[in-house]
TrEMBL record:
This is cysteine-S-conjugate beta-lyase. It holds the Pfam family Aminotran_1_2. Its EC number is 4.4.1.13. Keywords: Lyase, Pyridoxal phosphate. It comes from freshwater metagenome. Gene3D superfamilies: Aspartate Aminotransferase, domain 1, Type I PLP-dependent aspartate aminotransferase-like (Major domain).
């Protein structure tokens, strides 16, 4: 059920990921999967095109919008036993836009705490929102890779009032435990701070880990999410901001159309089909990723034995500590040997010797990714 693209298909389908590398180089950088879309998602988009649904998306409440929210509520109930109240989702273009608008509209003044390493746009959106970033270490190379809550607290004491949390975490692949999230909630409550949580990777929690939706613990938090990462549809532009406080929902929905208009009707149709009609495909995808993470561990043991990788609990994005090879920028070295992975310093400025490797490809390509990286590191 998960159909691998051939190289030619991938090059046509994924112009950012594959178009960015010379022919012959394998791209394992940006978070897109080398797989054909879920059949229900493809069918929903094709049906939308057949009906000519290429116009502007609707303002506010409308069956197309409602369909997306209802579908998300159903998904949250089935997968996480979370009964998301009705009328709490607002559509936005994508998670990056949603995060910026939430910071601008719903977050108290003051610096924004960001655990490092982080998904690089976190740093950019905080700057775009006119906020200062307050970084805390999250030691991705320690076995636990836990949040440094004492450092978060110090920033709260110094005036920060917002924490931007990625759950599950990109790039470490960690799934925060209930206890960790409760500790975050208690700390935020003690300092009257707000947590903004990006759960775009939540559908990709792999067997063995349990995902806890943060809003089930802290209803004052704001969730920004999308089906787009798990269902490979980021180009269709559709994400959701979930606010449990009716005042927050009202304030977010009062954002002028001109500032929040990047979503598309086709994206909403795809989102509804993803959340509502694609459980089996998603299940199959997670099984595939479960096998691939084992493959990756074996390939590393065979070809890059000094690489360190935490067991991946979620996502298809593996964080590799390659410092033992003594190459400051292993991603640049890899590029010279026909593989493009993402440099670790993009996620943690100044951090050398790490890469993020996207394993959502065929087993054969994954093997080439690792062997080429091994050749690059000597
Ligand atoms: C944690 C995280 N948030 C957001 C995004 C981007 O989401 P969008 O394309 O909806 O802005 C990504 C993409 O990889 C991501 O990993």
């Amino acid at each position: 059920m998960i159909r691998d693209y051939t190289d030619a298909e991938a090059r046509a389908a994924l112009p950012l990921k594959w178009g960015h590398v010379p022919e012959g180089t394998i791209p394992a950088w940006v978070a897109e999967m080398d797989y054909a879309p879920a059949p229900a998602v493809a069918a929903a988009v094709q049906a939308g095109v057949a009906k000519g649904m290429l116009g502007y998306p609707p303002f506010g409440d409308h069956p197309v919008v409602t369909g997306l929210e209802e579908a998300f509520r159903g998904f949250a109930q089935r997968h996480w036993s979370w009964a998301v109240p009705e009328g709490t989702s607002t559509v936005t273009a994508d998670v990056i836009t949603g995060l910026r608008l939430v910071l601008e509209t719903l977050c108290p003044p003051g610096p924004v705490v960001i655990p490092l390493p982080c998904y690089p746009p976190f740093r950019t959106v905080v700057a775009l929102a006119g906020r200062e970033a307050a970084y805390v270490g999250l030691d991705p190379d320690s076995p636990e890779a836990t949040l440094d809550l004492a450092a978060v607290e110090r920033h709260f004491e110094d005036g920060a009032r917002t924490l931007l949390l990625c759950s599950p975490h990109n790039p470490t692949g960690r799934v925060w435990t209930r206890a960790e999230l409760e500790a975050v909630r208690d700390l935020a409550a003690a300092h009257d701070a707000r947590v903004v949580v990006d759960e775009i990777h939540a559908p990709l929690v792999l067997p063995g880990a349990e995902f806890v939706p943060y809003l089930t613990l802290d209803p004052s938090a704001v969730l920004v999410t999308s089906h787009s990462k798990s269902f490979n549809t980021p180009g269709l532009k559709c994400a959701q901001v979930v606010t449990l406080d009716p005042g927050d929902t009202e304030r977010f929905r009062a954002i002028p159309f001109e500032a929040n208009h990047g979503h598309t009707t086709l994206g909403m149709l795809a989102g509804a089909a993803a959340w509502r009609d694609s459980d089996l495909w998603l299940h199959t995808l997670r099984n595939r990723l479960d096998v691939l993470r084992e493959d990756l561990a074996e390939l590393l043991a065979a070809h890059l034995p000094r690489a360190r990788m935490r067991p991946l609990e979620a996502t298809y994005l593996a964080w590799l500590d390659l410092r033992a090879y003594d190459v400051a920028d292993p991603a640049a070295a890899g590029l010279a040997h026909g593989v493009m992975v993402a440099p670790g310093h993009d996620y943690h400025p100044g951090l050398e010797g790490h890469v993020r490797l996207n394993m959502a490809t065929s087993a054969a390509r994954l093997e080439q990714v690792v062997t080429r990286l091994a050749a690059a590191l000597g």
